[in-house]
Amino acid sequence: MKSNPTKKQYPDIGTVTYNVSIRSKRISIKVKADGSVVVAMPVYTDISTAEKFLLSKSEWIKAAMRRVSKRKQAPKLYTASQENITKFHHLEIGTHASADEVKIFIKNGAVSVFYPQMLNVEDARVQNSIKKGITLALKKESVKYLKPRIEQFAKKFLLPIGEVSFRDNKSRWGSCSGNNNITLNIQLMRLPDELIDYVILHELAHIKHKNHSPAFRKYLDTLLGQNSRALEAKIRNYSPYL
After folding, report:
1. pTM of the predicted model, to two decimals?
2. Do the domain assignments include residue 162?
3. Which structural domain range is residue 31 located in?
4. What is the mean pLDDT of residues 126-154?
5. Which residues neighbour 171 within 8 Å (Cβ) at sequence distance 6 or greater?
6. 145 located within any domain
């Protein structure tokens, strides 16, 4: 069951979309990659209750919107070769004599991008090719590293994990469905190990707790062996945008 969305305007936030869905177990707020705000509501939750929750989180929402706006205004440029562009790959950028072709190679731990001498490295074609190469490397690494890692943790903590899939998501590091299917963001392969494990264990904790209640937080802390709040603060310094 899913009803038609309700849209409301707020002076400091803009348009907010309220969605009611049978899959929602609690009221949650999401600031999407385009800066729009969506509130997910359980069935039979009235708008006034959801609105009260929204307004109580207004400072968090505005901060999240500022982060999204900053990312949109200042896209990252890759102008030189660099080490550790992903967990297992470095980036090589160079020119070649071809008239108009941008070439991408992923081999021996390198994402290599060669562009025509007539182009500037900041040209959109070159930048898009670099990001495409990095994305391909991240997909390969996710299957190689993240899948065994989450399976290892699921076995260790006796958690009945469903299917594991990978996406290039611009707003979430991971998610866990009602059927315990877990989706992980391939951009995790650019994070430090402790934050990769934090996201994996966060999603595994949702197998037992389909919410962010105090019980969920306590269980996550147990899985991590430390207070999850510190890691949650650290991951806010990273963006899933290339």
Report:
1. 0.75
2. yes
3. 6-73
4. 97
5. 30, 31, 32, 33, 240
6. yes
